[in-house]
Amino acid sequence: MATPKTPRDSTPPVPATPCAACGAPLSEGLLGGACPRCLLANALEGESTGNTLLPPSASRLPARFGEYELLERIARGGMGVVFKARHVRLQRVVALKMIVDGAMASELDVHRFHAETEAAARLEHPNIVPIYEVGEHEGHPYFTMRLMEGGSLADHAQRLRGEPRQAARLMAAVARAVHHGHQHGILHRDLKPPNILLDAEGRPHVGDFGVAKHIEKDGPTRTGTVVGTPAYMAPEQAAGTARALTVAADVYSLGAILYELLSGRPPFVGDSPAHVLQQVQESEPAPLRTLAPGVDRDLETLCHKCLEKQPARRYASAEELAKELERYARGEPIVARPLGRTARTWRWFRRHPVLAGALAVVAWLLMTTAAGALHVAHGQLQARRAEVLAANTQAALTAAGAVLYLFDTWRDAVGWAARDAAVIDGLRRGDTEALHRYLQQMDADATRLHGLRTREGGSPFSVWLVLDRDGMVRGRWPRSDEEVLGQSHAWRDYFQGAQGIARKGGHAAYVSRGFESVVTGRHLFAVAAPIYDSEHAWLGVVVAMSSTGPTLGRLQLDSPGEPDTRVVLVAPVDAPRGGTTAFRDSELMVVVHQDLRPGETHVLDATTKARVREALHRAPRSGPEHPQFPQREQVVSSEAHIDPLRPSEGPWLAAFAPVGSTDYVAIVQTRDAAVFAPTRTLLGQLALWSGFPALAGGALIVLSLGWVQRRARARH
């Protein structure tokens, strides 16, 4: 725009009054008796060395500057100064910007000043500060623009920090204005809060295009020159690659402004601009939510996408960023997704290849050491497992043999009682009283004579019965005539087992399945022997019943000195009244377990039941007349056994051994955690003698490489 000129008149020229400070001729109508250069120096309030040239009469504003009256200084940058001014003729208040050094300005400053006016004049957008007039007055290029009375975004940052959605709406408007500039080939390159001005209604306007660049043509900036404000410039801009800048640089700056609005500080801060530039290129910004925990995760994701080191990873345009901000402001989900931990780690490795390589070597050493330790530990563990299973196998054979020996002793006692003349005579005569007395005497004599008394001195049997050949109860001890006498127990397994032996003419006693008492509801199992008369005619059955519980009579299966090892005895369950159940279909119940109370039981789970059946399938089938002790090949092992009464404890290493041909199974189980105890000790020793040196060496390598990198950066 042409320089405004004063119209000619016919009056004779008046001698020009010299400037009181420098002696330069003054134009008519200037205030304060000073030239524009001295007025400008005075307005800078001591920031330039020329202020001492102004006399006291010219040391204050307002002052005349061509057709404008300078009212007050608004801001000053490295190249220019902005005044609030009034057009004298139009009485319009504007913002007037001029070059600080005027005619003394460098060619680069003048070029940038004109580039700013040209860039701003090309752009017409509701959120870009409009240019009114461009001119030059006495060697001072200037232009006027709309005065923004709301201050800059920096003045409102504290308020917006508590209003994230308002900040998002405001930055969306700024992003659309920046996108408008991009559409017209203008990169701003210096977006920051002081360069975003607010009008009286709080609407944002982008200003200060002083270092703006035309995308399609080169400016005066040389490669390697850093242009912009370090805290807000993109990594590629901080590297000085001005010619390679794209719209992604402004997108980064918009993200940096949003980061500051939400957290109260820019993404990077440092003791010097060089320190900030180094962080911009090499470091990742702190996660936004660590500085502002109340910020939504979507807004954090959006902000960090703008701050990606690689331009291609940012939003493709400022318009795309604006749309994301508008989505967030409306409460809608954004498109961008947060970066995962794996991706963040990979990017750190790419930025620090030397340190990453060292860490990889250290990690390889640690993994090799750990793999060796685990291999040794695994071998030790497997050996220990095999050792424990072998010990449990032997213990299960021993336990099964002890149970079988006790059962044989019980069978001898009950068989002896069945041959007594008193029971034969009482059963033939149907003398219930005589049978009651007989059973009471047998409970004392048979157990005493055969050494079956418990440690407390009592009998191992809780109930004695006499049944006739039809299974009818003819005598019971303890007595309960009204409940039992005359009832048929022909469906019970103990009667059917003894009946089967009698039909073959045998004399051995039979060990029955477990069952629930119809009188007390307690769980029992029985030993039954057939009764013959003098002519070997079968008359009935004598039955002695024992209760389930923690011990088997006087036999305690568990070893008190081994709390991590238990012995469990399992038996098949009798069929319900009025029915029959094949053995392969019957349930299996716990007869002896240290946690059982007398008369209690517990049904096995499907997995344990399958292993018990496998052991029974291997059991000898010689019959009760010729009991046979189990062999090692008949034992079934498991490394994942579950205790039926303590399913939360485990797993256990267990061995299942059949108790002869009785269909009972003895289980010896050792807590798996006990097996790990020596292994943990071994692992600790391996970690101490092999892992610690590797860790120490790795740490030394990392520290050394870090020191080398710091020295290299310092030299750079």
UniProtKB/TrEMBL annotation:
<dbReference type="InterPro" id="IPR011009">
    <property type="entry name" value="Kinase-like_dom_sf"/>
</dbReference>
<keyword id="KW-0812">Transmembrane</keyword>
<keyword id="KW-0723">Serine/threonine-protein kinase</keyword>
<feature type="transmembrane region" description="Helical">
    <location>
        <begin position="354"/>
        <end position="377"/>
    </location>
</feature>
<dbReference type="GO" id="GO:0004674">
    <property type="term" value="F:protein serine/threonine kinase activity"/>
</dbReference>
<keyword id="KW-0547">Nucleotide-binding</keyword>
<keyword id="KW-0418">Kinase</keyword>
<feature type="domain" description="Protein kinase">
    <location>
        <begin position="68"/>
        <end position="335"/>
    </location>
</feature>
<keyword id="KW-0808">Transferase</keyword>
<feature type="transmembrane region" description="Helical">
    <location>
        <begin position="686"/>
        <end position="708"/>
    </location>
</feature>
<dbReference type="InterPro" id="IPR000719">
    <property type="entry name" value="Prot_kinase_dom"/>
</dbReference>
<protein>
    <recommendedName>
        <fullName>non-specific serine/threonine protein kinase</fullName>
        <ecNumber>2.7.11.1</ecNumber>
    </recommendedName>
</protein>
<keyword id="KW-0472">Membrane</keyword>
<dbReference type="GO" id="GO:0005524">
    <property type="term" value="F:ATP binding"/>
</dbReference>
<keyword id="KW-0067">ATP-binding</keyword>
<keyword id="KW-1133">Transmembrane helix</keyword>
<dbReference type="InterPro" id="IPR008271">
    <property type="entry name" value="Ser/Thr_kinase_AS"/>
</dbReference>
<dbReference type="Pfam" id="PF00069">
    <property type="entry name" value="Pkinase"/>
</dbReference>
